[in-house]
Amino acid sequence: MNTTRLKNRTTICLVLAMFLSISASPAQASPEKALSDFHQVLVTAKGRYSYKDQEKLLNTLEKNPSKSIELLVKELAAKLEQSKQPQEENADKIEARELAAYADLLSRLSRKSKKELSEKSSKALIDLIENKLGLDSEKDFDANSLKKRLVDILGKGCANEEKSLDQVKSCLVKEYNKEFSPYAKIYIAAALADLSSRGRSKTDKEIRDIFLTMLKSDCPGLRRGGAEGLKTFASSDIKDAPPAVTTLLAPLQDNYLMVRRAAAYSLRDCGPEAAVALPVFTKAAESESEYSMKAYSMHALSCIGSKDPKIVELYLKYLKNPELEMLALGHMKFFGQTAVAAAPEIASYLDNKDAIKRRYAAECLGYLGNNRDDILELLQSASLKDPDPMVRSRAEASLKKLKDRQSL
Questions:
Q1: Fewer CB atoms inside 10 Å of the end CB: C or N, the chain?
Q2: Higher pLDDT, 133 or 389
Q3: CA–CA distance from 157 to each of 116, 117, 122, 152, 189 (Å)?
Q4: pTM of the prediction?
């Protein structure tokens, strides 16, 4: 056996032994020891590791998530600092994969533990983003990709206290304003939207202005991000800013499907305040060329107009349209007792040949609240005799709802 093959086999055995030592007694392994072993594996294997191996390491780290997150942030900061220093001739080179491994591990741990970042960790991440992640073509790692991970961690793991939210939001607003890459702006805006949905802070006016500016961009991705972000401010009391609902009417008719869908999704969650958009959704449901946008429009109609009898009448009309029939059946339940008069028509679907239509009908009847004897009999029959188990299950659940309501 030649020297090269022997060396390769020795390296593989060493890496395997290291991971076996990590996984052999995860309960006794400290986060410091586990990370130290992980670092040795990364160096020996030149940054390569498997998902299974990382999962074993996570089992150790998640036993003390707050401490492990702080250690990972500190370790990542040290690696970034080391990457800036001149490398000695025979020194181990800090590679892109190694930096990405720590960021990926930090991201997975923060999601898996569902713990808020400590103030110390938040400040350390802010420092990394603001001071240590400048783009440099001479570096052999993608700082943009790394920043994306760190921004995502901050957006999802930041504590909900006003002070912490404000610090993180202020950092991300600065990063958004100095970024030139639309790609980077999109993921920073997504984190800002996530943070804004969790609480108000001093930076809300600036964040809302960012979303409004995004809607005017030439980049479809930025327009989509603006439409998604404005949902957070649908009921905002920010002064000197146009209402989010009326602002979202323009992207609802954008040339790009992803922008129209984002606007529809945001308006759908605005409730009755978005009634001004009902005519646009009505038109889109019938004339939109993309089926997915028809579905978004139908869903928005049922959410925004859930108390509007005119929208119920519109849905009954859609039941006669082969292209919209299934969507109408699936969304009719959102009207609840507003659509109680439509129950007999929905009940007629319990005899339909299509099992999916029978499923929708069986579920819907429980929400509409019509407990007429003939409807109860149809549901009773479906719960016992329908050949589809899901129809039987949904019919039984609806039957119980109606009987409980009848007994009140």
A1: C
A2: 389
A3: 5, 5, 9, 8, 16
A4: 0.74
